Amino acid sequence: MERRSQGRSCGMKLVLLVVTAMLGNAVEIRFEVRHERALKDHPGVLTFDDQGVSYEQVPTPKQQKKEASQKGPLRLERVRWSYTDIQQLWIAPHKVVLTTYRDRKWLLGVDKEYEFFSQTGKSFDGLYPLLKEKLDQRFVAAMADESSTPLWEIPVKLLGVVQGSEGVLQVGPERIVYRTALPGLSRTWRYQDIENISSSGPFQLTLTSFERAQAQYGSRKGFNFQLKQRLDEKRYELLWRRLNRDKGLRFLHDIDERTSSSQ
Predict the structure, then answer these.
(1) Where in the chain are all domains bearing CATH 2.30.29.30?
(2) Residues 15-58: pLDDT tens digits?
(3) Which of 10, 26, 27, 9 has its CA nearest to residue 18?
(4) DSSP for residue 23
(5) Domain 2-141's class?
(6) CATH class of residue range 152-251
């Protein structure tokens, strides 16, 4: 579907539009995108701001001619999601997948998803600074954060169902980054995005994230890494403590909230 759609010209100027409107603390970022549909893809504009995400379909030249010859405006798709309405927002350098809480009845209640591709192949990675502040574990950054400064790194292979990928696992003070050349397989995890880490030996590491994975237990997605160098036991212990330190703080925070609400 993606290759077929990329070869199709919609007759419009394919220019990435990025607008940042600084009105106080308000931010608005817009991209010209292609909305992938089952029968026919649509060009449009995808907008990210402080409150949520919106999509507005843009008429093609053929549709504009049709509108001029008929009475009334065209019926174009317009939809808006607040951040609380988004079940998961998955963003790779050239692709966005937005999963809502709405069921698709004809697919036995499967959650409705929207897929968008950059019209010019320009990257969406500039959205990371905005979205990491707006969304919790529902934000999946399928990209490597270029601003991250690692404390240490190790060359790895990420195992896959059919084919794996090779890259570098970078551990920093605030996040863990898996960096690979294959599109859509890089990841940036804030520590709050990670449920657990485990290891069966010095050359293996498993990271379990809150990313949706219906085929895996508990809808959590596991990333199983083969390590090309021996993982120092002290580094693993410090990483485990760093992850569970945040869990302890969140647990205490939840207790304080429940205590305050009951008084």
Answers:
(1) 2-141, 152-251
(2) 334 444 444 567 899 999 999 887 788 899 999 999 999 999 99
(3) 27
(4) B
(5) mainly beta
(6) mainly beta
